[in-house]
Amino acid sequence: MHLSLSRSVVLANAPVTSHPRIRCLKTPIQVLEVFDVWGIDFVGPFPMSKENRYILVAIDYVSKWVEAQALPTNDARVVLEFLKKLFSRFGTPRARISDRGTHFCNTMLEKALQCYGFTHGLATAYHPQTSGQVENANRGVKRTLEKTVGKSRKDWSDKLDDALAPWALKTVNLDVTEAAKRRYFQIHELEALRDAVYACSLSIKEKSKSLHDRKLKGLKEFKKGDRVLFYNSHLKLFGGKLKSKWTGPYIVEEVFPYGTIELQNKVDGNTWKVNGHRLKHYIGGPLDENKEEE
């Protein structure tokens, strides 16, 4: 069996490296007020512990304060109850950021939360940098649990509060005299402190974006109608098979801000959104996946 010319074109388009190079500009998430933006994500499944198998983690993007709860399932119902408790304690945020899992993106949850009037930001598939803060919190919680659970690892739900202790200690000033002075200062200069923190955060993110963008080589730009290949990291390859994880070509249906691209499969008409760093331009003729030469 020999590969047809059209299939050879795909292999020619595929890079030598096994992972796509990042060639998209960085887009920092700038937040103004404490508890304005929360990142939320599930961790698990874990071994059963008091009928719980998952941990729902939320982190505030300004204060880095972490909230977590052990839950038996990872469906929309438990997410809604968790968010309602979160809002009653910290107020309604301006936005929340999550992945595109069905437990976060569903009709029931969207309708229930319409009355709160906040924006739901979605991370594109295979781009964990968008929800990087909550991913870091997840790793911190798991590392602490690994050091505190018993040998059976079935008591992790009892140890969850201990795993959250490091974030609580970060905000504690154990010097009573110094704490009293700082508290008096904070009450009278609160707005000035917020402005200073915002300016500092903006400066750091601008420098980080500048350093990131400066290292980019061959910036990729896409427009509606372009033919592109998509890097499918979930594609299972069999040993000995000469096949690339770059699939396609697909048609660019729409280009959104901040690197999100909507693709369309001309075969079945399906559309989906991906991050631009997982795409590259396709150069070649029409592709027939089923065409092979004897």
UniProtKB/TrEMBL annotation:
One GO BP: DNA integration
High-level lineage: Eukaryota, Viridiplantae, Streptophyta, Embryophyta, Tracheophyta
Membrane-crossing residue ranges in chain numbering: none
Segments forming domain Integrase catalytic: 24-192
UniProt xrefs under PANTHER family: ENDONUCLEASE-RELATED
One Pfam family here: rve
Molecular functions per Gene Ontology: nucleic acid binding
Organism: Mikania micrantha (bitter vine)
Name of the featured protein: Integrase catalytic domain-containing protein
Coiled-coil boundaries: none
